[in-house]
Amino acid sequence: MQPIRILIVDDHPHAREGIREILEEYKEFLIVGEGKNGLEAIKLTEELMPDIILMDIQMPIMDGLEATKLIKLEFPYVKIVMITVSDDVTNLFDALKKGAQGYLLKNIKSHEWYEYLRAFAFDEVPMSKEIAFRILKEFPQNKTTNEKKTPLSTREVEVLQLVAKGLSNREISENLFISEHTVKSHLKNILSKLHLVNRVQLTSYAFQQGLME
Question: What is the pLDDT of residues 24-56, one digit of tens each?
Fold first, then answer.
């Protein structure tokens, strides 16, 4: 298996060094570059084409939120994980709406970084219940639509509904009695059909279209 190529973007040298030390313990990860602001993140993404960007939120010149938005427009298949010292979901929710696919707290233990990023690389990280609740509040279900119009198949709608409830790929497979591989295939098809990039946007779609029971 090819190593997972990671770009680290943080304006604090000690933070970048700490993240590098954690990830270099594991042969699955390859640090391909480091940046200290959003502009550098965009430039390095174009040059290095990482699989995953670990993006700080608060940075000078251009913050992580704006950089995330611009990178996802140009490179939609690059995965972005926001790294933060706070679990306040306000900035994280904004980042996820701009296309980021997940977040990590800087103070978690080394093995938790490994487990999260490895699962993240293989699209196996469920959305947090806090983020799902924010989406529920921001996008109240559309109850006026009697006839639900969606390009998705019946099975894809079932997968989408479980994603919106915060279930992991494994939990979805158990609920629908299908393999995790099949779940991943359905998710790729759903994202492609809807032109969306992450679970947050899928959940927003589900509520906006009145697909949640």
Answer: 999 999 999 999 999 999 999 999 999 999 999
The CATH number of the domain holding residue 204 is: 3.40.50.2300
Beta-bridge partner residues of 105: 84
Residue 32: how many CB atoms within 10 A of its CB?
A: 18
Is 23:29 a contact under the CB 8 Å cutoff?
Answer: yes
- Give me the domain span that covers residue 142: 131-208
Question: Which phi and psi angles does 31 have, rounded to 5°?
Answer: -80, 115
- d(Cα 23, Cα 29) in Å, to the nearest integer? 6
Question: Could you report the per-residue pLDDT of 52-83, keeping only the tens digit for each?
Answer: 999 999 999 999 999 999 998 888 888 999 99
**Which amino acid, residue 108?**
I
**Domain co-membership, 95 together with 64:** yes
Residues 136 and 191 in one domain: yes
**Amino acid making up residue 136:** L
Rounded to whole angstroms, the Cα distance separating 81 from 128 reads: 14
Q: What are the pLDDT digits (tens) for 106-116?
A: 887 878 888 88
Residues 101 and 154 in one domain: no
Eight-class DSSP state of 125: P
Given 122, 144, 178, the domain boundary residue is: 122
Half-sphere exposure of 135 (CA within 13 A, CB side): 25
Angle, alpha carbons 18-198-195 (nearest 5°): 140
